[in-house]
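Quick one: structure for this chain?
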Amino acid sequence: MKNKLAVFDFDSTLMDGETLEFFAKEIGIQQKVKEITDRAMRGELDFFESLTTRVSFFKGFPVEKVDTICQNLPLMPGAKEIVTELHKKDYKVVCFSGGFRNATKHFAELLGLDGEFANILHSKNGFLTGFVGGEMMFNDSKGQMLERLQKILGVDKENTLVVGDGANDLSMFKYAAKRVAFCAKPILKQQANIIIDEKDLSKIIEYI
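Got it. Here's what it folds into:
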């Protein structure tokens, strides 16, 4: 039996919203953060620059508040159903996020994911420093990680499904036979072969 792999983006894919915008609500800069996020997801801004700029706004933000917000983010409708169904069909199910492990670690446990790869918010003495590092910092990070994971797990392109919504998910597409643009920006839809415009991840079930 062939090994199979499904990779999901987190923000606006497994989770309904953008993590940094939930932080931004707390300090009244939601619109400022949203504008940068939207431009990055449309492919108009370099992902690394957009991420480091947005994170810098939160210097001094309490880690305790970060964790509380991250553990109470809203799941996308259908998230539990699609993960359960993929597991039934012997897929390994993984999350790649340009967001943060404060959230992905919690939701990986909640959803029963087989793994999660994300960025880490640097903190000191209980407060964010405004710096970020990690595995998903660049435009092509997700594609590079997917290729490495396929080699480790012995999964080929034909047995790989990827799901995302923005420009930083594009690099995964060349490694996957099933390429899902989920409520996605036009830049991703152009390269997808499965397009879902309804906020319901269980709609993917009919394609697997």
